[in-house]
């Protein structure tokens, strides 16, 4: 028996790869008040979808009102509300202040105190956005949740898969490596095939009040750009002084706390040794040492990972003993590079960077891709637990005074 009209509508997939007509499909759009999420909401509304805008309040509203470049706060909530009114869609503000502090800000501070270089945007996506907000979207009766991330997704076989976007300069896959398959199946990214200039132009054409709004800064909860202020406020007295030590064991000077330094840093060390430039190559929170050395001491060849999220089609049992060929990205601003991924018998994971990378630090993310091409598949990633540099650096360094 042939399907009737309603059954045909249900069986046909719309532009979001969901069955049914757009007007019968409810989409919750995560609206930060910026250009990208506003264009996402506008696009879906103009395509006829049943759109609901939802904004997360992550800060004290009164204090956030005059922050510039901080998303999900003060004026951004107002901007999201104004866009929703212009589009004629419902808009809700959900208070995730305490959850954000616990899941993102506190973890950020603890990671720095442990001598790491954290990536809070990944943690925010992993917890508040794609756990709490996603569950709220389901409570609104949504068929999916859309965001303004520049990332592509499409069906491959019987599951949804993430790919790098067409605009490589706006690629945000690095920040979504920890997304689970269940979350990927529910998420949609309408801007994956669009460039940022195209999104801004569309915002103008649609008459959105945020069309010329500047992008938010990376660490949205650090309004001054000085992250040490956040850490010292949460952990008074935690920035304990210590020694700046060369990797050969020579003490070169004093510091006021390892949280003031990051791996790869060259400027502001205030010490010299041997005539050549010095770089921070390691932070030792136990001994309170900032370890410095020549540039070649920054070159990392091997990474030990924790909390790996694997999204590739292969099972770990299918990994060759010689390592699975991947492309690895160790910073959001760097391109993926050739690497080998090892799934060890003890359940641990290691990555061998074939050409090496400089300035890689524990706490950063190592993200996996199938290739270098535009729209290459995202294979997941993990958090860097330890690094093995080309120039061997002992785990513990005995110190001596400089002559």
Automatic annotation (TrEMBL):
Boundaries of every tRNA-specific 2-thiouridylase MnmA-like C-terminal domain copy: 301-384
Reactions accelerated catalytically: S-sulfanyl-L-cysteinyl-[protein] + uridine(34) in tRNA + AH2 + ATP = 2-thiouridine(34) in tRNA + L-cysteinyl-[protein] + A + AMP + diphosphate + H(+)
One example GO MF annotation: tRNA binding
EC number of this enzyme: 2.8.1.13
CDD domains: MnmA_TRMU-like
Classification via SUPFAM superfamilies: Adenine nucleotide alpha hydrolases-like
Keyword ATP-binding set for record: yes
One GO term (biological process): tRNA wobble position uridine thiolation
Annotated region described as Interaction with tRNA, given as residue ranges: 170-172
Residues bound to ATP: 30-37, 56, 148
Residue ranges annotated for the tRNA-specific 2-thiouridylase MnmA-like central domain, each copy included: 239-293
Main location: cytoplasm
GO cellular component, one term: cytoplasm
Subcellular location: Cytoplasm
Annotated active site: 124, 220
Uppermost EC category: transferase
Site positions (Interaction with tRNA): 149, 364
Keywords: ATP-binding, Cytoplasm, Disulfide bond, Nucleotide-binding, RNA-binding, Transferase, tRNA processing, tRNA-binding
Task of the protein: Catalyzes the 2-thiolation of uridine at the wobble position (U34) of tRNA, leading to the formation of s(2)U34.
Family: Belongs to the MnmA/TRMU family.
NCBIfam families: PRK00143.1 (NF001138), trmU (TIGR00420)
Name used for this protein in its record: tRNA-specific 2-thiouridylase MnmA
Native source organism of the sequence: Cohaesibacter marisflavi
């Amino acid at each position: 028996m042939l399907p009737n009209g309603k059954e045909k509508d249900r069986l046909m997939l719309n532009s979001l790869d969901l069955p049914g007509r757009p007007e019968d499909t409810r989409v919750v759009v995560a609206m930060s008040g910026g250009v990208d999420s506003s264009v996402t909401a506008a696009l879906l509304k103009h395509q006829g979808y049943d759109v609901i805008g939802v904004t997360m309040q992550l800060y004290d509203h009164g204090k956030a009102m005059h922050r510039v470049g901080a998303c999900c706060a003060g004026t951004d909530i107002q901007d999201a509300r104004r866009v929703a009114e212009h589009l004629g869609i419902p808009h809700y503000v959900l208070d995730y202040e305490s959850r954000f502090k616990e899941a993102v800000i506190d973890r950020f501070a603890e990671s720095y105190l442990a001598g790491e270089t954290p990536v809070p945007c990944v943690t925010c996506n992993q917890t508040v956005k794609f756990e709490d907000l996603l569950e709220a979207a389901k409570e609104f009766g949504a068929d999916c949740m859309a965001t303004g991330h520049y990332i592509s997704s499409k069906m491959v076989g019987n599951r949804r898969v993430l790919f790098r976007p067409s605009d490589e300069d706006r690629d945000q896959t690095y920040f979504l490596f920890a997304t689970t398959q269940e979350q990927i199946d529910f998420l949609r990214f309408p801007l994956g095939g669009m460039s940022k200039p195209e999104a801004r132009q569309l915002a103008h054409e649609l008459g959105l009040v945020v069309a010329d709004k500047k992008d938010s800064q990376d660490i949205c909860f650090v309004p001054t750009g000085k992250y040490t202020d956040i850490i010292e406020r949460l952990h008074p007295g935690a920035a304990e002084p210590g020694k700046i030590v060369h990797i050969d064991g020579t003490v070169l000077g004093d510091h006021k706390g390892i949280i003031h330094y990051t791996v790869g840093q060259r400027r502001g060390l205030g010490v010299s040794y041997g005539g050549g430039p010095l770089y921070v190559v390691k932070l030792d929170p136990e001994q309170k040492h900032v370890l410095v050395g020549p540039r070649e001491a920054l070159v990392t060849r091997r990474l030990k990972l924790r909390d790996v999220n694997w999204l590739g089609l292969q099972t770990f049992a299918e990994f060759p003993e010689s390592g699975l060929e991947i492309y690895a990205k160790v910073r959001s601003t760097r391109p993926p590079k050739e690497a080998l991924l090892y799934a060890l018998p003890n359940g641990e994971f290691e990555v061998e960077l074939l050409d090496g990378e400089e300035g890689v630090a524990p706490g950063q993310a190592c993200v996996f891709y199938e290739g270098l091409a535009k729209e290459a598949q995202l294979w997941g990633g993990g958090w860097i637990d330890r690094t093995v540099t080309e120039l061997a650096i002992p785990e513990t360094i005995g110190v001596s005074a400089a002559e």
